[in-house]
Write a structure and sequence with these properties.
Strand content of chain A: under 5%
Radius of gyration of chain B: 20 Å
Shape of chain A: flat
Order of helices and strands of chain A: HHHEE
Number of strands of chain B: 13
Helix content of chain A: 25-40%
Radius of gyration of chain A: 22 Å
Number of strands of chain A: 2
Largest sheet of chain A: 2 strands, antiparallel
Strand content of chain B: 15-25%
Number of helices of chain A: 3
Number of helices of chain B: 12
Distance between the termini of chain B: 38 Å
Oligomer: heterodimer
Strand order of the largest sheet of chain B: 2-5-4-6-8-7-12-13-11-9-10
Order of helices and strands of chain B: EEEEHEHEHEEHEHEHHHHEHHEEH
Structural class of chain A: mainly alpha
CATH architecture of chain B: Alpha-Beta Complex
Largest sheet of chain B: 11 strands, mixed
Largest interface: A-B, 48 and 64 residues
Helix content of chain B: 25-40%
Chain lengths: ~90, ~425
């Protein structure tokens, strides 16, 4: 069981910004879904996880990229060819 | 070059963006109008993923599949409605309102590619692109009475698809006939170096309806608890038709089905929690407030920009990956995923394809599914193919309560041709 406090903490970690009045509803649904996920406890530990796939890398060769003005076209907040972002501190 | 002009009568709310006209050229799809799901990037055409957080976003490049359909001569009619970021089974989770099912407008079209399915089923377009993470092509195809194919993972490039759950999702064709699905597969498949999971396996195939001697496995679990007996009966009639056309029907078991849905939801929410971190209002979408601190601005933007289901899945994934819970959820889900894959590999040593219903019920009424878990449970028959990466098609197979039912055919990896052949044999058998 997770509590409303737990859900508020997860929302904070995920930077999701949910409202206080939504917490009870989210917590109730969360617990229903997590109860269902408990079926995974029955999966045998011995079952091999992951896959037999391997990473595919390409050679590190510089290729053309999009022009800077096109990259910046979807934001209003730009300065000297860079995105302007909120303060970090 | 020719210009296609379109009518803007969108009575089913199938489109988020409609264009007035499109240029078409020579090629395999010459003169054909095609609809594109709104999570596939189209240069200069708004691409929202049905989310407020991407409202107004004009991609600076085309997805690989968009380049391919244009090169084949098709004209893009518009961008179709969907569940926000692909998260849903009804197309009700859209910031642009729900799409209606052309077969019955009081019903949902299924999801998440519900707009693409409604546009095809209503005759607005001949074909459409959808995406399938856990059934999002096959479910709306079944609910709207059209054909939809989820290709083998890796066969179609995901470059330019706005990522939700990378290890599960594929772009695929939706159309009214199996021949059109096959035609679109010819155009969509092939190697693309910009998708590192792309496999060089082009599709060049003419559907062949001869299925004499083909072994069709029918897992008991596909007709188990939760599957409406009326739907099951319609699908069994469909399987009997395949038997009359010369196939051998073999009942079998898929024990990993017990874990498949939980494994799917843990995996897709975990991947979503990482993928959707990029929506912060800095590079696209309604802008962040740069006077605020990073976290304030980020949380405000995402609170206003994301719908409830998207928030829920981001939080579920964040939780499943968090320290102390990773072993209980994510690691176990990957072990279960391997069991699903192993079950399919074992079955495909004995049978050529596997058949069952696409969805456990017919289309829900709009507003009927209010609790998320019961919505998730309706994906039980489609998620196994995504977990294993195998090809799976849904083909119309009659009606129950007057609403369309889909027959699902799944095949071994890179045998898309085989499942398309079986669907073609079925379609030809029905129309005779």
């Amino acid at each position: 069981m997770v509590s409303e406090k737990d859900v508020a903490h997860i929302a904070e970690l995920a930077d999701i910004g949910i409202e206080k009045e939504e917490l009870a509803e989210f917590t109730g649904r969360f617990n229903e879904i997590l109860d269902y996920f408990d079926i995974l406890d029955q999966v045998e530990q011995g079952t091999r996880g992951g896959t037999d796939l391997v990473n595919i890398f390409r050679d590190d060769i510089v290729e053309d990229s999009l022009p800077g003005d096109e990259v910046l076209a979807n934001t209003l907040e730009k300065e000297d060819g860079f995105f302007r972002a909120p303060r970090v501190m | 070059m020719a210009t296609l002009t379109f009518t803007r009568d969108d009575r089913y709310n199938a489109f988020i963006t409609m264009l007035d006209n499109a240029e078409t050229g020579p090629g395999k799809l010459s003169g054909i109008g095609i609809a594109i799901k709104d999570n596939i990037s189209t240069r200069g055409i708004q691409t929202t993923c049905a989310s407020r957080i991407l409202e107004g976003y004009l991609p600076p490049y085309d997805a690989h599949v968009v380049t391919l359909v244009k090169k084949a001569g098709a004209g893009i009619v518009g961008k179709t409605n969907m569940d926000e970021f692909g998260m849903g089974t009804t197309t009700e989770n859209s910031a642009f309102g729900p799409t209606k099912n052309p077969a019955d407008t009081s019903r949902v079209p299924g999801g998440s590619s519900g707009g693409s399915a409604a546009a095809v089923a209503s005759g607005m377009v001949r074909m459409a692109l959808g995406t399938d993470t856990g059934g999002s092509i096959r479910c709306p195809a079944a609910f709207c009475g059209i054909v939809g194919h989820k290709p083998t993972y890796g066969r179609v490039s995901r470059y330019g698809l706005v990522a939700y759950a990378n290890s599960l999702e594929q772009i695929g064709p939706m159309a009214r006939t199996v021949s059109d699905i096959s035609l679109l597969m010819e155009v969509l498949t092939g190697y693309d170096p910009r998708d590192s999971t792309s496999v060089n396996c082009p599709y060049a195939h003419i559907p062949d309806p001869d299925i004499r001697g083909l072994k069709i496995g029918v897992p008991e679990e596909y007709f188990g608890e939760g599957v409406d007996p009326r739907v099951a009966s319609v699908v069994w009639d469909g399987i009997s038709l395949l038997e009359r056309k010369g196939a051998d029907i073999i009942t079998c078991r898929m024990p990993s089905m017990a874990y498949a849905l939980a494994a799917y939801y843990v995996t897709c929410t975990s991947e979503a929690s990482s993928n959707l971190a990029r929506f912060d209002g800095v590079r696209y979408g309604p802008p962040a407030d740069t006077r605020q601190t990073w976290h304030e601005s980020f949380q405000e933007r995402r609170r206003d920009g994301f719908g409830t289901e998207v928030k829920r899945r981001i939080m579920l994934g964040t939780f499943a990956l968090s320290s102390g819970y990773y072993g209980k959820y994510y690691a176990k889900a990957q072990a279960a995923r391997q069991q699903v894959r192993n079950d399919f590999l074992r079955l495909f040593r004995e049978v050529d394809v596997i058949a069952g219903p696409t969805m456990p019920t017919v289309a829900f009424r709009i507003g009927e599914k209010t609790d998320p878990l019961s919505m998730y449970l309706s994906d039980i028959l489609t998620v196994p193919a995504n977990l294993a990466g195998i090809p799976a098609i849904s083909v119309p197979c009659g009606t129950s309560e007057g609403l369309p039912v889909g027959l699902q055919i799944m095949g071994p990896h890179f045998r898309d041709e085989r499942v398309i052949d079986v669907a073609y044999a079925f379609e030809q058998g029905v129309s005779r």
